[in-house]
## 1
Amino acid sequence: MPILFLTILLSGMGFGLILPGFPFVATKLGASSAVATTILGLYAVGQVLSTPVWGRLSDRYGRKPLLVISIAGGLVSYLILAFASNLWLLGLGRLLTGLMGGSLALAMAYVSDLTPPEQRAKSMGYVGGSLSMGFIVGPMLGGLLGGRDAASATLLWPGLAAVFVSAVMLVGAIFFLKESLPPEQRAKAGAAKGPGGLAALRMVMARPLLARIVLVGFMVYLAMALFESIFPFWAGARFDWGPRQIGLSFTYLGAIVAIIQGVLVGRLVPIFGEGRLLIAGLLCYIFGLLIMTQAPAWQMMVFGITFTTAGSALYMTTVTSLVSQQAGESERGLVLGTYNSGSWAGRALGPPLTGLLFDALGVNIPLYTAALILLPCIGILLGIVARTANSR
């Protein structure tokens, strides 16, 4: 488990290195806000296409070989991003990063293999905490390496740093990480003629409780993508921020997520249950968005974004535990992968939509839209909590 958590930490670090300067580099290469956010969203498109495949293949062939392939593909994608000289290469690198980005879902499956159900929320919190620790260091370095302001933004040095981090991950996964899925479980999954792609999604959606969770996941991640993918442009328009300030803010947010996921979630779930924590997380997110729209200065904006970050951390960790409990041992990778695919569909739709809203209707419209999308999610979750309580 320590090697796995270190691998997750480095994964978050490599991903975070690219983020601060990416929107500004896209703009320098000629993209509008809508085009830049669309390219940013290609990562989510890749995740939609590949996540169920990673999960199903890992059920059949084991977690470790798929994790090694995922890390190696990510290394290639960072090389492309580091040397991208036009929007097409930038888009290709971003899409490939998503297609090869199965490491987090595989890590979740690893943890599910190694922990009993009653300890799973706590262990998923450690996964999130490890990822967030990487996300603390990665954006900070990415902001420092990515340029002082929008005019000097670059992906060359952040991209090469991400390549180095991926190489370290690759060596660690090959030589030090042990397989978590027993051979008999792999054989059982291999013998099963389970569906894949859209058929897998239909199979999960046929289960009423899982169907509602997947629907909420799609809507929540759509709302989060509306805000998160426009944030660099929003902060630039409101407070004249560049890559350095964006990177430092991501570092601060990563610290909040690490504390919540690594320390608080495991203690709160036994007391309140997954459903109530999901609702609390979405309420925090809405509250933070509304504060940000009214912020007269960046200090008030940071106060608001603290609530959105805390809310997303509560939601993301807790919902993973809830989903994993609905899966059998031989289909855990499939169910987690299918849920993540539905959620990534929301992340894929959000970036182009938020860019259009930002350009056409105003800087705060994406934030208001995100808050409105989250309101019905709370109603659906209230129904899930009531149904779960009645079934006990």
## 2
Amino acid sequence: MALVFFFLSLGKPRSSLLQGSALGLSALVLVITFHSFSLVLGQPAQLLFFDAYRVDIFSQMFKIVFALGLFIVIYLGQGLKGVVEELKAEYYMFLSLSTLGLVFLSSSVELLTIVISLEISSFSLYVIIPFRFQKGYRQQMEAGIKYVMFGALATGISLYGMSYMFGFAHTTYLAELAPVFPELIKTQPLMVVALILVLGSFFYKLAMFPMHFWAPDVYEGASNETAGFIATLPKVGAVALLLRFASFAGVELNQITGILATFAVLSMVIGNLSALVQEDLKRLLAYSSIAHAGYVMVAILCVSALGFASAIYYIVGYLIMN
């Protein structure tokens, strides 16, 4: 899909051709992800690319959610009225690339693969925020710069935490980290710090305290179509990642549950109280999403099958409603 729009961007295609191609290709993606989900039902998990990429029911289910989200965003944003006319082909290309990064993310079970997947998804969004078209309106530039700056900060913090994790555990694979994680948490206090630093990047995607500052300005500055995408799909990706981490860490996550629960409570309180005084609808949506990040974190912190199922159910409902 991204390649099709790359080649279309080389010419001057009509808006109707772009819209039809986007709807058709996103529908095809949705059909293929449903088919791939049916293929893995009842099958053991498969590992690819030196065991860095895991294909199982969990990953394929999230891929359906990403494909569905992309289709809904394209369907509801027909005509892309909020996007510069000359950049509509590029807009669809970067939207496809961002979704591709999230698809990679749902199957990534190795720290560096996770970082690369996050960056593929994020960089595409950094580019399309300034694509907004509205006469006399320039806040999209400020929104784009803020998103890039906070994104770079979040990535740097996460990589710093990952370097500690690798230093202690001598591996970047989640499956190999899980067995040594409980002992390292007890013997190496810095391991707790490392884990919190790594989670910083996920909090940024989820717009959860303390990495929530960017959301209101970015939502307000971006076009409605872009804000609809940023407000939903990256958050689903963050939940998928957090569930992967929590499932590999298991009950040993309880060592840092207090810290994460504090962040969740602060997200709920700050998000809801700040939303009360907003006069811009998209800023209201942003603070609402900060509060929702706290709610979904509560389900993840249960570290149980029921808690994980609740988190997935919640985030799918959140995606469709937003």
## 3
Amino acid sequence: MSRFNISKTVLKTERVVVSPRAMPSSAAAGPITPPKSEAGPSLTLEPSASDATLMQWAGFGLMCIFAVSGYANEFALRYFHVKAYISTASWVVLPVLLVLSGNLLRGLRDVTGRLWLFFLLWVTLAVPFSVWKTGSVTLLLNYVPHGWIQLFYYAAFLISFRHCRRFMYFLIASNAMLLLDCFLFGSASEGRFEIPDSIFFANANDLALQLLISITQFMYLLYQRQVWKQVLGACGILIALMYMLKTGSRGAFLATLVLAIVSVLFGKNRIRLVLAGVPIALAVLIFVPSSSFHRVTLIAFRPETLTVRDMADASAVSSQVQRMALFRLSLTYAITHPLFGVGPGQFAVAASGDAAKEGTRPNWLGTHNSYTEIASECGLPAFFLYVAVIAVTLVSNFRIFRRTAHLAEYRDLSALASCFFSATLVYAICTFFFHIAYSSYLPSIAGMSVALRLGTSPLLWSSRPPKLSASTI
């Protein structure tokens, strides 16, 4: 781990203040020069050892263990036919630690946390208007403790930038376990790579998204000074990319293209990125089957204009036609039920009920789009809150990254912000093609971003940095 020059001055408050004259006029748009004081620059808010309570340290440790617990369950089931029960124990202990930590409401100090709370409140309000109330209640009882609340876990237990940095290494370790899982148990089914009998990744699209997010986390290693870390990061990205393309996920493929373009346009070392991309692209072309490339390119064509060559093409075209029909139907429900939708998790129930009334065969499928999933099931207010959380997470991470990109002493801070921005970006694109709005992906990414925002000066992420006095630095 690289050690960089951050002032050892401990800030007892999160009101980091500089004189307005110390800020360049372009601070809201681009890189900034850190405020100077006798103690040096302090754009990160680091708690002292006494500021972190025992319960907060316990929560942080359990979050680190939880990051790899899913794969521990995966391997334990395959080799010993029994769950490790680490994640099960975590679901019981984490809420208790959250209350005892004293940081239960820390996430609400950030606008993202408040938007996330209002989102849940509106989803809850939609339950009485559901076409199947029992189903909606069941969904919430599972979603809140296993998905939604994770934003507040991250905000409560990752109480500084250093915690975020340490936690990233546990995420990278879990990604390495995912690649091992792919190598040992992955196989192609109907031309698409997946992990049969996996607890989490039996579906190719789910696997593709997780692999793509793992790429954004392996990117953190590329920012480190040690060459061996950079090599490990590049290898992790290459292997994850090859497996991801084998899944044939068109949404993940599109997200990869956008991520590559954004990285080249805004990355710190553009030439290095381009040069590194050439061997990666060659390796992908060699090891990824041409059928996978052919499938993902079908997204660029209208189904009625395609010439079907084989059963794989027929399946892909049929899937595309079906998704467009589901997309239009979900938009119809969003427009005809604008306030509360048809009920959380009840799109398939409502669609099948309407199909039965019309004398057609119900298909019992979801929306295949997370945005219309929320809009059609929970109403347009919930949709706007959901999108707002994604937008704030994207913008704040992008600002931190851009404003620290050329400050050598904040190399790791810039790296974390870049990785969180990239993860949010690929989630936002991928979920336009499949429905996982009630999963833990968004609260996890947004939660880590909230923790990073609360651990850094508002100078780095606010559109209007506060006017503070230099005496508090």
